[in-house]
Every structure is written in structure tokens, then in C-alpha cells.
Amino acid sequence: MGRRGGIVVLDGAMAALAAAVGSGVVQAAGTDAWLAFRNRLARLLSRADRQRESTQLERLDRTAAELSAAGPEGDGGEERAGAERARHGAAWRARVEDLLEELDPDERAAVAAELRVLLDEAAEASRSGGGGVSRNLFLGPTAVQNGDGNVQVNRFGSRP
Questions:
Q1: Environment class of residue 71 by beta-carbon count within 10 Å: exposed (0-12), middle (13-18) or buried (19+)?
Q2: Which residues are within 8 A (CB) of 92 and not within 5 positions of it... i.e. 6 or more apart?
Q3: For residue 129, what pLDDT is reported?
Q4: Do strands 2-4 and 7-9 pair parallel, antiparallel, or not at all (unpaired)?
């Protein structure tokens, strides 16, 4: 961390964290993990100011809507979707950098730790599928079980 003309310059680790948060916003938007991610990130960025939190929530909602409208990258609109993802990732990176630059060193370290936890939890939710079933098409009798240590018995068809 350094100062240049009275302005705090983030070190590489903080800049990388801000970039990871920007990517995390883009990756979480539209997933089962989005609502929790968006709420916690808005709370962190607002620093307990309700008006700022409301503004951050509106921005996050707008980001999710614009990413959804751009479509997934694999549906033939790769260029548009990729451009939107890059634009929103960069915007959220800049917002996180701005926040980190404003904080004193102790606050910066605490917020950075909270951001890392948020990213870890979002990554875990995406690895585990967020605990739900999504993007599946069931065209017949179907049983779905979710959780650990559950027992489920399914019988389809007529009983003998």
C-alpha cells in the first residue's frame, strides 16, 4: 500500500481482491447464490449506511438484469455476453477498489477478510450447485433428492 500525491494506491493483493470481487459479481449473477451474495456485498460496500446500501442493491440488481438480458455466453451471442460480463466485472472492481482506498489500514484489512469469505462462500455454493436443482428438464416421472444422509424410496408405475 502506498501514497501518491495524497491518494492511497492499493498493493497487488488488494487490487487482485477487487478484481476477484468484480468477477465474483458476474459469476454469481443469475445463480442460486446471487441473493445472499448481493445482499452481503451491498452491506460491505455501504459500510452501514442505509442509503448507500440501497444504491448498491439497485446497482447489483441492474447488473444482474443486464447480464441476463445479454444471455449466456454459449448461445451464439458470445461477443455481446462477453462484453457485458467484462464491463460489469470492471465496474464492480472499480467500486471495490474505491472502497478499499478510502479505508484506513485496519478497516481495509477487515473488509478484505470479509470480501474473501464472501468469495469463498460463493465459490463453494457454485461448486455444490447451491443446494438446488437448476437447468434440468424432466420429461417423465422424476425424483430428486438433495442433501446428505437422506433416504428416499421412489416407486413409479402401477403397484403389483
A1: middle
A2: 21, 22, 25, 26, 63
A3: 56
A4: antiparallel
**Ranges of residues in the chain whose predicted pLDDT is under 50:** 4-5, 130, 135
Kindly report, residue by residue over 60-77, the tens digit of the pLDDT. 999 999 998 887 655 556
* pLDDT for 127: 74
Interatomic CA distance for residues 98 and 18, integer angstroms: 9
The answer to whether 131 touches 125, Cβ cutoff 8 Å, is: yes
Cβ within 8 Å of residue 37, ≥6 positions away: 24, 25, 28, 118, 121, 122
**What pTM, to 2 d.p., does this model score?**
0.71
- The Cα–Cα gap between 115 and 21 comes to 7
Beta-carbon contacts of 122 under 8 Å, excluding residues fewer than 6 positions away, are: 24, 27, 28, 33, 37
Q: Cβ–Cβ contacts within 10 Å for residue 96, how many?
A: 27
CA distances from 115 to 24, 41, 74, 153 (A): 10, 8, 29, 42
Task: Please tell me whether residue 7 adopts helix, strand or coil conformation.
Answer: strand
